[in-house]
């Protein structure tokens, strides 16, 4: 790919060619959700040519126009819901949640690491760079969720929190939920196997399907950002999900 994307100004507004920002909804690890009628899941991996720094918000500002163009093109949305991501277990119901302005200029739901919705067309997004993105799709009610679960979130049980919120608000039955864990850091590159903990929590919650292809973000910096391997000077992958109308 060209390094033309590196010339994008911070917070700029462009419509880059699709080759710069593939929303890889067709990736096999998302097939368990994308093969279901009424759901669409996506993943934007590493984008070549975008300068990264240790300043998260500065880097996200550089990624922002590319991510916005991709979400508009492939999900038909101008914006997506974002969690502030504080490494906790809080999950918010959207729309309706309060938001604050993040450092990259986009609104986020404060104090939470996960989002759930029953409303068609409401795109959910989570940023990761070694932590795991967890997609939730309820085949019974049509509800969807997206969670940020690394070491802390997994220890605190954010998966159970998300399923519990869906159960309380939408009548979700865990056996109807398809759960997918995306690429994340794993041993031997990280001493904590939080992916294994997430799998155990999915079993304990009684979800109908749990899928994890075991992809390690630390192993391929051509495809992934890795906070640990790149010592914080890194970007963020963007996980996406929507209940289609």
TrEMBL record:
It catalyses: inosine + phosphate = alpha-D-ribose 1-phosphate + hypoxanthine; adenosine + phosphate = alpha-D-ribose 1-phosphate + adenine; S-methyl-5'-thioadenosine + phosphate = 5-(methylsulfanyl)-alpha-D-ribose 1-phosphate + adenine; adenosine + H2O + H(+) = inosine + NH4(+). Keywords: Hydrolase, Metal-binding, Transferase, Zinc. The keyword Transferase applies. Pfam families: Cu-oxidase_4. The lineage of its organism: Bacteria, Pseudomonadati, Verrucomicrobiota, Verrucomicrobiia, Verrucomicrobiales. InterPro entries: Cu_polyphenol_OxRdtase (IPR003730), Cu_polyphenol_OxRdtase_sf (IPR038371), Cytotoxic_necrot_fac-like_cat (IPR011324). This is Polyphenol oxidase family protein. It comes from Luteolibacter rhizosphaerae. CDD domains: YfiH (cd16833). SUPFAM superfamilies: CNF1/YfiH-like putative cysteine hydrolases (SSF64438). Belongs to the purine nucleoside phosphorylase YfiH/LACC1 family. PANTHER family: PURINE NUCLEOSIDE PHOSPHORYLASE LACC1, UNCHARACTERIZED PROTEIN YFIH.
């Amino acid at each position: 790919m060209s390094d033309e994307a590196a010339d994008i100004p911070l917070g700029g507004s462009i419509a880059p060619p699709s080759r710069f920002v593939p929303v890889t909804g067709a990736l096999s690890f998302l097939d368990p959700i994308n093969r279901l009628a009424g759901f669409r899941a996506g993943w934007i991996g590493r984008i070549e040519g975008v300068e990264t720094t240790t300043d998260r918000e500065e880097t996200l500002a550089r990624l922002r126009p590319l991510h916005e163009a991709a979400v508009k093109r492939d999900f038909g949305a101008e914006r997506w819901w974002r969690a502030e991501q504080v490494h906790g277990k809080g999950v918010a119901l959207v729309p309706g949640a309060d938001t604050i302005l993040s450092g990259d200029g986009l609104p986020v739901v404060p104090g939470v690491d996960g989002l759930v919705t029953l409303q068609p067309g409401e795109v959910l997004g989570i940023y990761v760079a070694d932590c795991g993105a967890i997609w939730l799709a309820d085949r019974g009610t049509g509800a969807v969720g997206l969670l940020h679960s690394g070491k802390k979130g997994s220890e605190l049980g954010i998966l159970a929190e998300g399923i519990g919120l869906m159960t309380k608000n939408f009548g979700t039955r865990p056996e109807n939920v398809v759960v997918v864990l995306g690429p994340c850091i794993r041993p031997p590159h990280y001493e904590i196997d939080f992916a294994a903990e997430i799998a155990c929590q999915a079993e304990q919650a009684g979800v109908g399907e749990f899928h994890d292809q075991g992809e390690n973000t630390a192993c391929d910096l051509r495809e992934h950002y890795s906070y640990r391997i790149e010592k914080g000077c890194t970007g963020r992958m963007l996980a996406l999900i929507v209940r289609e109308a």
